[in-house]
């Protein structure tokens, strides 16, 4: 069942190229057009959507956070991302033109189910992005876009996260195609780039020995920080969550731009800090993160940097660099999160912890 791996978590990390490929499979017409007939929401309704609210919890909410950057850029529709339990108990502004996207691996998370019901009561259309067929959330939604990650057994989510992000890209491109925000050849170009991702993810997995070695050497760390900007920000949050869940180490993710607004006070000699660095092809984003690395390094932090191949600007300020293949900015989370998953899994393993079934956690949280 574990495919020759010692744990489900390792197996599921290795399943990720397939999870992404399978989520893309069969959703184009072969001529670069997206075909998402399965959505069963009237095209006129999708054309009239004036706001999207993503509701989800935990890792699924971070997938939604990545989706916000892509969908707003491609479709020019405002996207809010909200934790399902917060959405449910306030008075959200929702109308018939609001598309609520509920993201969930299990489809059984009670907080998300309650938020779906609440959204529909307010007249919103709900589209579920779910991995588990026949679960409650798709049954209670207007439409469903399944992620095809296969069963995820380890409590900490990995392959479902990548599949959720992939499905959200498809949704964003589909809306852009439908609403005429993007020309067909532009959509085809993005789809072609997406099609290259499974191979790139595989490359990161195949070159992770150093990540594991660094993780094992850090097994006595008491706190690790994660910083990212733009789509690297939700990746930082996810890296911190994985480390908390699996290794029971205090970990926090921040938007790199927040550093000087507070978190830099935490930096002292030897404090490990991960950086998720944007591509140097986006100098505005890239240069700012490189300065952040420099700033914390000057205060004695140990800098662990995830950067694109060929990005030499980080070398001077990085104690360790983990490389990822060159990838379009909006799609970078699919490669940059992988070293962080492997890091958390290896560090927890080095501490002798059960990575498949961490203490106090359940795979699916079926109570509010
Ligand atoms: O099944 P869901 O995707 O709705 O679950 C949401 C969260 O409970 C889940 O992502 C949780 O945060 C995981 N333990 C993360 O690894």
TrEMBL record:
GO CC annotation: cytosol
Class of this enzyme: transferase
Molecular-function GO terms, alphabetical: carbohydrate derivative binding; glutamine-fructose-6-phosphate transaminase (isomerizing) activity
Catalytic activity: D-fructose 6-phosphate + L-glutamine = D-glucosamine 6-phosphate + L-glutamate
Compartments where found: Cytoplasm
Residue stretches making up the SIS domain: 41-181, 214-358
Assembly information from the UniProt record: Homodimer.
Keywords tagged on the record: Aminotransferase, Cytoplasm, Glutamine amidotransferase, Repeat, Transferase
EC number of this enzyme: 2.6.1.16
Protein name, entry field: Glutamine--fructose-6-phosphate aminotransferase [isomerizing]
Residues of the active site: 363 (for fru-6p isomerization activity)
Gene source species: Georgenia ruanii
Gene Ontology biological-process annotations: carbohydrate metabolic process; fructose 6-phosphate metabolic process; protein N-linked glycosylation; UDP-N-acetylglucosamine metabolic process
Task of the protein: Catalyzes the first step in hexosamine metabolism, converting fructose-6P into glucosamine-6P using glutamine as a nitrogen source.
